[in-house]
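Please, structure for the following, as tokens.
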Amino acid sequence: RRPPVVEMVGAVDGIPRGFELAAGRLAAVPLARLATTVRAAMPDLGTGSRVAVPRHATLRATFAWSVELLAPPERDLLERLWIFRGGWTLAALAAVCDESEEVVLAPLTRLVEVPLVDARRRGADVRHLLLEPVRQYARSLVEDERAVDALRAAHRRVYLDVARRAWELFDSGDHRALTAFEADEGNLVAALEDALDRRAVEEAAGLAAALGTLWIGRTDGQ
């Protein structure tokens, strides 16, 4: 019989991210049992064929298995994290979710531990990030389009405020504005694209003006 760690690598088809997700459960589940559980969740991999099951399908199955083990608050939060593009701060997450930082911190911490969410230090701050395959999977979990619309509106509102504050800082000569802008550029562009799609004229105008000013400022500073 092969060692459990070899079984685990085979169960996730050798995909590093799949192994990371499985390894995140080792604190609660012994390795031998974990390998068996993962393989049972993906029965098509038991044939030994690496042709019948594409790697993206294997990774998706690993995501599904990992999400099934989440507590309700953790899954609820994951189903909202896809809205962010390029990462987020704890303050932004709390604002988009309309919750306190204390409320969102516990499930977010667990998602980092699993690990479905990456935590990256940027200077004195910590930014969180969903890798794109996880982000796409998290979006696929949400079937209620009304919930999607409400989340998009909250995201636009929060990042319109970010754009305005960054613009004010830059306009006052505070170069910290550029750092804030670069960190949240993905979210600002996503908010602008969504505002244009929704024909939210005032929001689109505010985002476009702030982004334009900051882009020009960044170019001038090079």
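The CA atoms of residues 117 and 130 lie 5 Å apart. Strands lie at 118-122, 125-129.
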